[in-house]
Amino acid sequence: MVVFNSRLAESKEVAAHYAKLRQVPDKQVLGLDLPTTETMTRAEFKKQLQTPLYDELVAKGFFKLGPPEAGPDGASQRRRVLHSSIRYLVLCYGVPLKIPHDDTLAEEGALKLQPELRKNGAAVDSELVLLPLGRDKIMLAGLVPNPFYGTAVTNLPRIQATNGVLLVARLDGPTPAIARGLVDKAMEAEKYGLWGRAYFDARGLTNGSYLLGDEWIRGAAKVARQMGFETVLDDAGAVFSDTFPLSDVALYAGWYEGDACGPFALPEVELMPGALAYHLHSFSAATLRSTTQHWAGPLLAKGATATVGYTDEPYLSATSDIAVLLRNFLHGASFGEAAWSAERGFSWQTTVVGDPLYRPCDVPLDRRHFYLESHFSRLVEWSHLLVVNRNLVMNAPADETLAYLRNIEFMRHSAVLTEKLGDLLRLKKELPQATEAYQQALQRYPSPQQKVRLLLAIADLQTSAGRDKDAVQTLQQFLKECPRYPGMLSIYQRLLPLAEKLRDTALVTECQAMIQKLTPPPPPPPATK
């Protein structure tokens, strides 16, 4: 069922676009008279969204109900959903995002909950997950435990209305165009595959109450690596800096900054079609309308196809287990299935943004590879890279892996595969050959951020080998070809000692002037009485 806000033409347009592409029948597209803000009160939610939606599902026979049964309080009655032809619920741009806490709503038993769980506000998505239960007499404060948390891929079909749950996600974002584009990018990745690199930004924690977040992110990195993605795990305390070359991103998970920062604050981010990007923060989806505030909106604006966020403080243990989400998603689950199987509870703060039907990983690798080759797609380089990395995970001999790479005819045109060749040679300490491979990769149309990484790697190897003149030439090439690099100060700081060693007075003078120009002024001294 696709739901839009009938007060907003843009909301209807998003719904129509989605219904056309996913071939949703007209009777399963519903317009409701809803507030045009991202927030709706509990009364508005019940009267204008929850009740009419439930009634529509029953009236049109999508929900077939059983006889009345006693509710959880023993006095009320409810009717179970015995059969449902609806499993997914898609909320379109313009459907409110969240229900704020209501101090006037007194509930018996709420004070028995932990203090942090006594609030009755929630994400609209998370409330509608439980629509098949009716919700009239279930306590609104706190969360409802998810019996399907951690469910393996083979058991995910159990997550359905007859078991009390709908898979809810929204097509949303800072603009209607971004919201519409979520299904376009999802279907592109379903057709050609989810390709690219995986980046995970942990905090390096080894103990304490926040360790769980790092364990989830490290677990997600392990899943991605085992599936063959070229994977980076940063276990340092700080998040990725804006100088980190984040290229060809298929998967990203990190924490814990309030607003999009580092590479994600730059004008462009290399997010691949289908990219799943997630940043763990308590208010990551407090609004979806901003391209700079929080995380969900900015990630979508930069090109992410799917994300998960929080409309209010969920507390760490009730955030998404990103390792479970990725495990199921990369093993063939839909995005909706993967997202909700990673939640500890419902009726809480999670919003799931993206096409819930999005399922790019249910096609066997050999079939996907054949399709890309037969269509002469450059994406076949990522398929080869996946094979290489899966072999490395299984401890295949390095010489066999190198031979496989060298025998790929397409490698002569692939910066991705040639860089991987350089990486493997570098691990074997064959540094001149590694340098040569990186230089060849530069001639094979790398992405802008890949070019940054290659040039810096070449300069490192040349410097280590005492090839100072070559290193200077590489860094000067970097200055010329990567003018938007935000860390130019560091490049001149690397150039200066090399120029001094070579006694290149003109270059020394240039570096000193640029270092002085680019060095930020010291902070003002503290005020004194």
Task: Explain what you see.
This protein is α/β, with parallel strands linked by helices and 529 residues long. The chain folds into three domains: 2-353, no CATH class; 363-446, Alpha Horseshoe (Serine Threonine Protein Phosphatase 5, Tetratricopeptide repeat), CATH 1.25.40; 466-520, no CATH class. It is 40% helix and 14% strand. It starts with a strand and ends in an 11-residue tail after the last helix.
Radius of gyration: 26 Å
- Tell me the domain tally: 3
Separate helix tally? 17
Structural class: alpha/beta
Strand order of the largest sheet: 2-1-5-9
C-alpha termini separation: 66 Å
Mass-distribution shape: globular
Brief summary of the model shown:
By secondary structure, the chain is α/β, with parallel strands linked by helices.
Could you give the topology of this structure?
Layout (H helix, E strand, L loop, with lengths): L1 E4 L3 H14 L6 E4 L9 H18 L3 E8 L6 E8 L3 E5 L5 E2 L22 E2 H5 L15 E2 L21 E5 L4 H17 L4 E5 L9 H16 L3 E5 L14 E6 L16 E9 L16 H7 L4 E4 L11 H9 L4 H7 L3 E2 L3 E4 L11 H10 L5 H14 L4 H9 L8 H13 L3 H12 L5 H17 L3 H14 L6 H14 L3 H14 L11
Helix pairs in contact: 1-4, 5-7, 7-8, 10-11, 11-12, 12-13, 13-14, 14-15, 15-16, 16-17
